[in-house]
Write a structure and sequence with these properties.
By secondary structure, this protein is mainly α. It contains eight helices and no strands.
Length: about 250
């Protein structure tokens, strides 16, 4: 092969390599743009799914979403940024990454901040709903203990405690999945039902003091001076006199 032929072949290989490099640059540019747009789309899709679930909370005693909330303001700006980038893409393709006025970056930045506002709004809406639901079934710890210690309903006490623990666990692990909301609603209904079975009357102070002492007899020895007239009458009216027996303190 002559020197001229070798030189021609070498030039051809150089041109081929340059063409491949240029194509690789185009592919890399497309890939970068696609990944960045996917992140934009995923951020908005995640918040859209949250919004759909938060809207369902109104069906379970929650508040309706206020369309005038500031989280929903300035949505038109995102559409404007998207339109700007679409024009830039049509004109420059992968070179739109190097444009002086980088509309893709502006779109990413705008979506990032708007998604953060959406997320904060959805989290707040969820926490408010949880607080409302707790008011429907929570009982003071002393009232709960009285179901076991005063009214001898150990099963009710244990069932409520187990359901409450499950509720707290589900709420702590909540990540806006429909099946999670359904499970939490079932637990709320169960807790409300269990609460309705409880005797929630506040005991007179002397009666509560009497039961506190009796139920802690291993650490304190209750004496008859706790059996005041008020306590005696309360025990008699509630058919509880036969629950107790008198032994000498020797």
């Amino acid at each position: 092969m002559s020197f001229k032929s070798k030189l021609s072949q070498l030039n051809l290989e150089i041109d081929t390599h340059a063409s491949l490099s240029q194509n690789r640059s185009v592919v890399d540019g497309y890939s970068t743009i696609a990944n960045r747009l996917n992140k934009v789309a995923n951020a908005l899709t995640e918040e859209a799914n949250k919004k759909h679930l938060v809207e369902q909370l109104a069906q379970h005693g929650g508040r309706l979403i206020d369309p005038e909330n500031k989280a929903f303001a300035d949505i038109d700006k995102l559409f404007e940024l998207l339109a700007n980038y679409q024009v830039s893409w049509e004109e420059l393709k992968e070179k739109s990454l190097q444009e002086d006025n980088n509309f893709l970056y502006q779109l990413e930045y705008g979506v990032k901040h708007k998604a953060k506002e959406f997320s904060e709004f959805h989290d707040q809406s969820w926490q408010e709903w949880v607080m409302l639901k707790r008011k429907d079934f929570v009982v003071p710890e002393l009232i709960l203990e009285n179901q076991r210690d005063v009214y001898d309903d150990d099963a009710l006490y244990k069932n409520y405690k187990l359901a409450l623990e499950s509720f707290s666990r589900e709420v702590d692990g909540f990540n806006f999945k429909p099946d999670q909301l359904n499970q939490i609603c079932r637990l709320v209904a169960k807790l409300i039902e269990l609460r309705s079975q409880m005797n929630t009357d506040n005991l007179p102070e002397s009666v509560q003091k009497f039961f506190n002492s009796v139920n802690n007899y291993k650490f304190s020895r209750p004496t008859l001076d706790l059996l005041t007239e008020e306590v005696f009458i309360w025990l008699k009216e509630n058919n509880m006199l036969s629950k107790f027996m008198v032994t000498p303190n020797v």
